Amino acid sequence: MIESASSDCPVLVLYTGGTLGMIPSAEGLAPGGDIEARLRRALAGLPPSRQASLPRFTVQSTSDPIDSSAATPRDWQRLGASIAAQVGDYAGVVLLHGTDTLSWTASSLAYQLQGLDRPVVVTGAMHPLESEGSDALDNIELALRFAAKPELQEVAIAFAGRLLRGVRTRKTHSEADDAFASFNYPVLGERIDDDAVLYPGRGLEAQQRGAPRFELPDYTSLAEGGVVRLTLWPGIQPWQLDAWLGDNRVRGALLEVWGGGNVPDDPELVGVLAKASGEGKLLAAISQCPIGGIAPGHYAAGQGLVQAGVLSGDAMTSEAAMTKLVHLLAQPLDEQERRRRFLTPLVGER
Ligand code: ASN
């Protein structure tokens, strides 16, 4: 049973791997163990006043911490199930995750943990905890502070001094500490001096009424390739599109199209989309531009998408749209209901 969020409860820190906990190995950086002792040792280096104002926390680790480049929908499902089962016993959760696919996991968790009534804060680092000048400690400290705030009631990402909505965020830099951005939604909060400050009116708390509505479908079949992601390029051929969409293992696809929602003016190409749609495959489109949404049909060049029954993903990130397709296709919904839910904002993703 879910108890109401209480500041008396500790925060659960769940370690899944990533650079934050890595140590050097003969093959390069690889996930290290003993994370609880290492975290506590690092936090003990903070000034006493900052240590004193941190919430109490319990640490757990997945059985086999990974580089997040190896994560699959099965990992999203396992993490969703683990958090759903335990979150009621904690004030909030901090998920320590590799940065490479952090925004994918955060997006998937948002759909699995609908109606969440307390914080799930995902963080990681661009440098290992013990390396000189690492960003890891700052990120962990910030994530712990936000994870103890009962007003935060969604899956968010704490990184480089800012709190971003998980399902709006992308990794946009492969080297800088400030590696994540949420182009189409404002930041939820920020570090100001030593405080973690939430901006009013930006979070999901107003829509998290009543009991949590966790949806924990089995992603196994989708983890075997049921949803594909296709980025168009100038000169793409209908047979190339058909090679992906015509495969009967494919049940859904995210198309990353031009600008405001345009595709090449090629009836054969549009025919491939219409055929897949007609077979009941769930097709959605977003823009290749990271900023702004799409409105298929605004240009004549977008009519093909409309005619082929491709759903508009508006200003969703690739991560938000793909994980939503997986989430909807994993449930026993009829086609109309799936299409309706795709177009409906479920967790502030659109
Ligand atoms: N390859 C690492 C990972 O995603 C990158 C990182 O965490 N900074 O696990």
Automatic annotation (TrEMBL):
Q: Which species is this record about?
A: Billgrantia antri
Q: Which PANTHER family match?
A: 60 KDA LYSOPHOSPHOLIPASE, L-ASPARAGINASE
Gene3D superfamilies (UniProt xref): 3.40.50.40, L-asparaginase, N-terminal domain (3.40.50.1170)
Native organism taxonomy: Bacteria, Pseudomonadati, Pseudomonadota, Gammaproteobacteria, Oceanospirillales
Enumerate the spans annotated as Asparaginase/glutaminase C-terminal domain: 227-342
Top-level taxon in the UniProt lineage: Bacteria
Question: Where is each L-asparaginase N-terminal domain found?
Answer: 11-194
Cross-referenced CDD domains, in alphabetical order?
A: L-asparaginase_I
One Pfam family name is: Asparaginase
What are the catalytic residues? 99
**Identification of the protein by name:** Asparaginase
